[in-house]
Write a structure and sequence with these properties.
It contains 8 helices and 11 strands. By secondary structure, it is an alpha/beta fold. It has 2 domains: 117 residues, Periplasmic binding protein-like II (D-Maltodextrin-Binding Protein, domain 2), CATH 3.40.190.10; 82 residues, D-Maltodextrin-Binding Protein, domain 2. The protein has a 6-stranded mixed sheet with strand order 2-3-1-4-11-5, sandwiched between helices. A 5-stranded mixed sheet has the order 8-7-9-6-10. Bound molecules: 1-O-pyrophosphono-5-O-phosphono-alpha-D-ribofuranose.
């Protein structure tokens, strides 16, 4: 049986690929450069589909992919009917609240720009702070610079994007790493193959 694995395009992709190769999977060398969205690897009985990080979970939830690699940020944002099998400990970053160092804040309900509206609302609710959430799809750091928002909730990895845009981090919300996720039905139907993959990956997961 072929295992279909949804992989996130972008920065997680390279690290996930390296981890799979370290675990002994032979993946074609042109894998990373290809523009193909479905990559068959018959020698390993694997098929990879390449999707946007937020969509990986959707493919797995609907069962068109058996497995997926998704950031904890995506898992926290929406409750989905998938199981988390492994913390792959790759693509480490964190979710944070940031803004201009001495920015003027709208005192009644500060505006928070983010592509994580659920994470942001529950975070500020827990803080007892009333905010207005403004949903964006990327380049979130632009929002406070141009006056759309007082603060942002976004991923910080190296911190370069904040720094180069004159923004500072105020609070950390959660640590984020990539997870191996599985469709519950696939897990029952292809348990042997999936558990084998979990075992192979477990031994090569980087240390803390
Ligand atoms: C992410 C995130 C930040 C940036 C952080 O954006 O939203 O903008 O990376 O990384 P850094 O701390 O290493 O600078 P991404 O590149 O995924 O693009 P996006 O603007 O589409 O969110």
């Amino acid at each position: 049986m072929v295992l279909t694995i949804a992989m996130p395009k972008g920065r997680i992709f390279e690290e996930a690929l390296e981890l799979l190769r370290t675990a002994g999977y032979t993946l074609p060398p042109e894998f990373a450069e290809s523009r193909k969205l479905i990559i068959e690897v018959p020698e390993e009985k694997m098929r990879f589909i390449l999707a946007k990080p937020m969509d990986v979970v959707t493919y797995v939830e609907h069962g068109v992919a058996d497995l997926g690699i998704a950031g904890k940020d995506v898992m926290l944002e929406e409750e989905r009917d998938v199981y988390e099998l492994l913390d792959l400990k790759i693509s480490k970053c964190h979710l944070a609240v940031a803004g201009l160092p001495h920015g003027q804040v709208h005192h009644i309900a500060p505006r928070v720009a983010t592509k994580y509206p659920n994470i942001a609302s529950s975070y500020f609710r827990e803080q007892g702070e009333q905010v207005e959430i403004i949903r964006l799809n990327g380049s979130i750091e632009l929002a406070p610079l141009i006056g759309l928002a007082d603060r942002i909730v976004d991923i910080v990895s190296t911190g370069r994007t904040l720094k180069e845009n004159g923004l500072v981090e105020f609070e950390k919300i959660a640590d984020v790493t990539s997870r191996l996720i599985v469709n519950p039905v696939s897990y029952r139907m292809k348990d042997v193959q999936i558990n084998q993959m979990v075992e192979r990956l477990s031994v090569v997961i980087p240390d803390e």
